[in-house]
Structure formats: C-alpha cells, structure tokens
Amino acid sequence: MKQSLGLLEVSGLALAISCADVMAKAASITLVGLEKTNGSGWTVIKIIGDVASVQAAISTGASLADQKNGLVAQKVISRPGEGILSHSVTVQPEPVSESIPAVPQEETSVESSSPEAPQHAELISCNLCLDPACPRQKGEPRSLCLHSGKRGEA
C-alpha cells in the first residue's frame, strides 16, 4: 500500500502540537515531524499514512486550527511520486527497545508422585502473615495465626 503525505501549516508551536495531538487521535497516522518555517512563527506538521487516514487527520487538524484562527495552509498528496516522499520526509526508524533479561529461576528438585501435578515446596496458607509455617488457613480466626500477638511490632 502506498503512503500518503499530509501537510498542515499553522501559526504557532503550541497550536501545532495541539493539532498534531488531535490528528493522531483522529486517525491511524504516523507523525513525521514538526518543522518551523521561515517567518511569522508558522509551523508545518508532516504526517504519513494511508490515504483515508491522512485525509481524515488533516481535516480534523485544519478544523481545530481554523477554530483557533491559526490555519495557514493544508495539503494532502494522496499518492506522491517515487522521489517526493523519500526526499521531502525523512522518517526516523523507531528505536529498538532492549528487552529486559529474564531473571534465572532457581531449580528445585521436588519429587512428586504424579508428573501432571507439580507441588510447590512452600505453600503459604495464612494470608495475614504469609508465613509457610503458620497453621492458620484463609478464613479461619486471626487468633490461630502464629504472629497474632505480634501485630504492630517491628
């Protein structure tokens, strides 16, 4: 699918950022950049995407800029020629996020009677103290907890 190029020129950087935000929320587009033009504080917003998305985004951004009395120009080039898109817009590749290495888990040798049901070495039954040695089961009175008299002590 060929990409489409959309250009929206507005007066002021704050309005350009607001328009870019509205355009990105209105359609599935890629914001290529904001470029300050020569004179009068005008800023060009460059977007790419499929034809319908770029047209929807430009019309949404233009209507916001027109409401704020800051619309200068708008243009959608539906399917630009081979050299136009590559020379007028330089798309920065997205940085590759480094994956966080997984923490190696300690291997425990637990002998089980059935291979389907893995047994945990320490099963926590008390939801108050989280001590595996506590005989209290969830739902039983708090007085059965090993640490019931030690509440609030450091």
Automatic annotation (TrEMBL):
Pathway info: Polyol metabolism; 1,2-propanediol degradation
Primary location class: other
Its job: The 1,2-PD-specific bacterial microcompartment (BMC) concentrates low levels of 1,2-PD catabolic enzymes, concentrates volatile reaction intermediates thus enhancing pathway flux and keeps the level of toxic, mutagenic propionaldehyde low.
GO biological process, alphabetically ordered: 1,2-propanediol catabolic process
Boundaries of every BMC domain copy: 4-89
Protein name: BMC domain protein
Keyword Iron-sulfur included in the entry's annotation: no
Segments of this protein annotated with the region Disordered: 95-118
UniProt biased composition (Polar residues): 106-116
Keyword Cell wall biogenesis/degradation: no
A Gene Ontology cellular-component term: bacterial microcompartment
Record's subcellular location: Bacterial microcompartment
Keywords of the record: Bacterial microcompartment
Entry's family note: Belongs to the bacterial microcompartments protein family.
